[in-house]
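Worked example 2:
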Amino acid sequence: MALWPEIRVELGGLEPGWITAEAFFASDAMIEEFLDYEGACNAGTDRKTCGSLMMTDYAYVVALATVPLFLGFGLLPDLSPSRFALLFHTAEDEHDGQLHEVRRAHVRYLSAGYFTSRQDHAAHPDARALLTDDAIAEAFCTAVEGHFAPLIEQLHARTQLSRNAFWRLVADALAGWFIEAGRRLGCVEAAKASAMAVLKRPGSKLNNRQLHYFDLSVPDRTGKPFSYTFRGRGGCCRYYTVAGGEYCSTRVLKEPRQRDDDLRQAMRRHLGLAGDAQA
C-alpha cells in the first residue's frame, strides 16, 4: 500500500519473526513487555495510561491495515486473530506537533479470503460473498469487535481501565483512519459516511455518542475559506497524565467552543497566518 509506507500490509504465510494476533493476545510476556514499553516512554505513566497507550498504538495498526482496503476498494479481509499476523517494530509519530516513539507492526493476512461490496471484486475465487454497503459495514463492525475482544479482556484485567474506555479508543482509531484515508484517496465525504455506518451501529461496543466528525473554516491569505474535517474523539489516551503531557486538541472532555478556537488557531499556523492582523 504505497500511500501508507509506515506499515506494510501483505498476504502470505507465517514466517520467523511474525506472530499471529491470537498468539500475541495470549502471551502474558508479550503483553507485559508492551505495557512496560509504553510506561518507559514517559515519566509518571500509570498502569491505566500504559494500557490506553498500548491500545492506541495497536488500534492504529489494525485501522491502517483495514480501513484503506475497505474504503478504497470495498474489501473486508479476514480479521480473525488466528489469521492476522504481526511483525512488531518501533517508529516515530507526530502527536499534536511533537515527535514520539511508538510501537508499530507490519501486517500479514494469512487468509486470502475476503468479503466485498463491489461487483468487480466478487468474481475472484478468493471472494467469499458480495455484500450490500450496509451488510459489509455490519460485517466490518462485527469483525473488529471479534478481533479486539480478547485483547481488551487482557488489558482490562491488567490495568483496571474499563472495557468501555478501550472500545472508545478502538473506535477513535478507526474514525481517524477513515478520514485520513478519505483525504488521501480524495473521498472525504464518502469516508465520513462509511465510518459512521461501521461505528454507529446500534448495540455495537464501538458505538458511543461522543465520536463524530466536524468541519471548521478560517480565511486564507486571499480571504477564501480554508476548511478541514476533524474527528471529535469518544475516548481518551490519557497522555495528559504523564510528565509533561498535554491535552489532545480534540480531547473528548474539552469544551467545544475552546476546542474549536484552539483548532482554528492551529489551522492559521498551518497557513502561516498566526499573528497576522487578518487572521
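The CA atoms of residues 194 and 243 lie 37 Å apart. The beta strands are 9-11, 19-20, 75-77, 84-95, 98-109, 114-116, 127-130, 212-219, 225-232.
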